[in-house]
Every structure is written in structure tokens, then in C-alpha cells.
TrEMBL record:
<dbReference type="Pfam" id="PF21621">
    <property type="entry name" value="MPI_cupin_dom"/>
</dbReference>
<feature type="binding site">
    <location>
        <position position="120"/>
    </location>
    <ligand>
        <name>Zn(2+)</name>
    </ligand>
</feature>
<dbReference type="InterPro" id="IPR046457">
    <property type="entry name" value="PMI_typeI_cat"/>
</dbReference>
<feature type="domain" description="Mannose-6-phosphate isomerase cupin">
    <location>
        <begin position="243"/>
        <end position="318"/>
    </location>
</feature>
<dbReference type="GO" id="GO:0004476">
    <property type="term" value="F:mannose-6-phosphate isomerase activity"/>
</dbReference>
<keyword id="KW-0479">Metal-binding</keyword>
<dbReference type="InterPro" id="IPR014710">
    <property type="entry name" value="RmlC-like_jellyroll"/>
</dbReference>
<dbReference type="InterPro" id="IPR051804">
    <property type="entry name" value="Carb_Metab_Reg_Kinase/Isom"/>
</dbReference>
<dbReference type="GO" id="GO:0008270">
    <property type="term" value="F:zinc ion binding"/>
</dbReference>
<feature type="active site">
    <location>
        <position position="198"/>
    </location>
</feature>
<dbReference type="InterPro" id="IPR049071">
    <property type="entry name" value="MPI_cupin_dom"/>
</dbReference>
<dbReference type="GO" id="GO:0005975">
    <property type="term" value="P:carbohydrate metabolic process"/>
</dbReference>
<feature type="domain" description="Phosphomannose isomerase type I catalytic">
    <location>
        <begin position="8"/>
        <end position="115"/>
    </location>
</feature>
<feature type="binding site">
    <location>
        <position position="178"/>
    </location>
    <ligand>
        <name>Zn(2+)</name>
    </ligand>
</feature>
<dbReference type="InterPro" id="IPR014628">
    <property type="entry name" value="Man6P_isomerase_Firm_short"/>
</dbReference>
<keyword id="KW-0862">Zinc</keyword>
<keyword id="KW-0413">Isomerase</keyword>
């Protein structure tokens, strides 16, 4: 099985809060007016990505991993995770506010759901004027204060609202109460998990008049009640990999590309590029692959030497 840079069919998700920006800004093939998510790379059960380009088109990501795990995942990633692809990559369009939610850590998620936890980061691709996020508490809190405000429908009064703009990055460890606000398009990088505890949904109902399920009791011991700083400052040195997030679950770099850079990898981890602005070309063994804003590409670990060229902004993600 000869590997090459791989793109996958987007897995599109309608959401009550979704819109049409994934099409107008990122050129995703949506027809719905409430498309909230494009899952770019996933092995979540029932939502496994399928190759869209080249000789391996039609193969699932799981198929590729099982055929040659170290070549796809990398020696270190395979040693740590076996045949599991440990990350999930998405683009999100929030036409309306998302629900206020929290994700459990690895320990809780394993016990309750036989799943990874959900540490994640957000890169803001587009922000309407006055767009905001909710990230944690304004001040240190506790379970009793949280429950009291939840019952009194005053939860918003103790949560931290943050104004955001294009290029902002937020890193959310498990336990962080959060919500993406209306008017934002976001690239999300997270552990492979679809476990979310929904705390409050602004009393919204779906088309059938039903409220979405809340998970108030499950969330109580999953929440970090301390005030935390989630905003990540980072450099934007041209034609370099600038570290944005470096955590046990993934490393994300920001590459402002204007010209050509040579890339050399160790083979220990796969690499993913998300094109968040402009476009770029990847050259590998004499073949050229072209990408534009909104594209996501998986570079199997066996591809160690290649070149990136063009004018754009890239997120570079791997496991170190």
C-alpha cells in the first residue's frame, strides 16, 4: 500500500445552531441551512472518515490504519494508542450560541463511556463583530454555587464571556465549562471522543418542540470549578512552525506561509495540516498536491520529507 497525502470526505452534521458558512467560507458541499459541523478526520464509531483522493479513495481511515498502523500513525503513536486514531478534527459554524457544556477527563470517560476524555483547542477562522465565547468561571466557584445558579437560571452570571477575533486560540482542558457563541467559525482539534455533558441550552426546542437532553448530574464531578486561563498567545514568524499548543494529547503549530519550506519528520507521528487561510501546495516525491482554505490533509507518518509552498496560514498538528 503506497501512501501519499490523504484527504477525506467531510462528514457534515446538521445542528440546531448551525448555518451556511461552512459552504460560503470553507467551500464544504452543504445544502442545509443549519449545517453546524464538518468532521474532517474521524474514527468515532458510526462516523469514520473515508479517503476522497487518489488510489486509496473509498478506503476508510480505519482500513488504512489496520493495514499498516505504523506507516499511517507513526511508531510512537502506535505504541501509545495501538490501532486507534487518537484525534478528531472539525470545522464548526455557530449561527447561534451552542449549548453550555463540559467534557469529562480520561478517567471519568473510561469508566462511564469506555471512551477517551475530550481535551480540545479552538482556532477562530472568522468572527462576526461582538462574537464571544464562554470559557470557564469568572471567579473560582464550587459545586454548590454552580447548582444554585443553574436552578435559578442565573448560570450565565458566573461564567466568563470573552470577546474573540480571527486568529484567536483557546485551549480547553477537560472540565472547562464552555460554549461557542453565535457568529463564529472555528477549527477544532480534540481527542477522539464524542462525549459531551450539556448543562444549559437556553431553553431552546427543536423543530418538533422538544428540548435537548441535559446532563446536569453527570457534569457535577466532571467540572473544574477554578477560574482558568484558556487564551493562548503565539508567535507568527513567517515560514516557520510557531508552537500554539503543546499538550500530552497533541501539538499544534501555526505556519504563516509565504514561499517554500522544507519539512522533515521522524516517522514517530502522523501530521495533519488544516488550511485556515489562503492556499498551499505540498510536494512529495515529485508529486504535487494543492489545497485551499478549509482543506484538511493527513500526512501518514511514513512520509518523512516533503515541501510546502504558497501563500496561506496553516495549522500543523501531530503527537509528540
Amino acid at each position: 500500500m503506497k501512501l501519499y497525502p490523504l484527504q477525506f470526505e467531510p462528514i457534515l452534521k446538521e445542528r440546531i445552531w448551525g448555518g451556511e458558512k461552512l459552504k460560503t467560507i470553507l467551500n464544504k458541499p452543504i445544502s442545509s441551512k443549519i449545517t453546524g459541523e464538518s468532521w474532517e478526520l474521524s474514527t468515532v464509531e458510526g462516523d469514520v472518515s473515508v479517503v476522497a483522493n487518489g488510489a486509496l479513495a473509498g478506503k476508510s481511515l480505519n482500513d488504512l490504519i489496520h493495514s499498516n498502523p505504523t506507516a499511517v500513525l507513526g511508531t510512537e503513536v502506535y505504541q501509545k494508542f495501538g490501532n486507534q486514531f487518537p484525534l478528531l478534527f472539525k470545522y464548526l459554524d455557530a449561527r447561534e450560541d451552542l449549548s453550555i457544556q463540559v467534557h469529562p477527563n480520561d478517567e471519568l470517560a473510561k469508566i462511564r463511556h469506555n471512551s477517551f476524555g475530550k481535551t480540545e483547542m479552538w482556532y477562530v477562522l472568522q468572527a462576526d463583530q461582538d462574537a464571544q465565547l464562554i470559557v470557564g468561571f469568572k471567579e473560582d466557584s464550587n459545586a454548590a454555587e454552580y447548582v444554585e445558579n443553574l436552578e435559578n437560571k442565573t448560570l450565565l452570571s458566573i461564567l466568563d464571556y470573552v470577546a474573540v477575533k480571527e486568529g484567536d486560540v483557546f485551549f480547553l482542558e477537560t472540565g472547562t465549562v464552555h460554549a461557542i457563541g453565535a457568529g463564529l467559525v472555528i477549527a477544532e482539534i480534540q481527542q477522539t471522543s464524542d462525549i459531551t455533558y450539556r448543562l444549559y441550552d437556553f431553553d431552546r426546542v427543536d423543530a418538533a418542540g422538544n428540548h435537548r437532553e441535559l446532563h446536569v448530574d453527570l457534569a457535577l464531578d466532571a467540572i473544574n470549578y477554578d477560574k482558568i486561563d484558556t487564551y493562548k498567545k503565539y508567535n507568527k514568524n513567517l515560514n516557520q512552525s510557531n508552537t500554539v499548543v503543546d499538550c500530552p494529547y497533541f501539538t499544534t503549530n501555526f505556519i504563516p506561509l509565504d514561499g517554500t519550506i522544507a519539512v522533515n519528520k521522524s516517522g514517530e507521528s502522523f501530521t495533519v495540516y488544516m488550511c485556515v487561510d489562503g492556499g498551499f501546495e505540498l510536494e512529495y516525491e515529485g508529486s504535487k498536491f494543492n489545497y485551499s482554505k478549509g482543506d484538511t490533509v493527513l500526512i501518514p507518518a511514513a512520509l518523512k520529507t516533503f515541501a510546502l509552498s504558497g501563500k496561506g496560514s496553516l495549522l500543523e498538528i501531530y503527537i509528540s
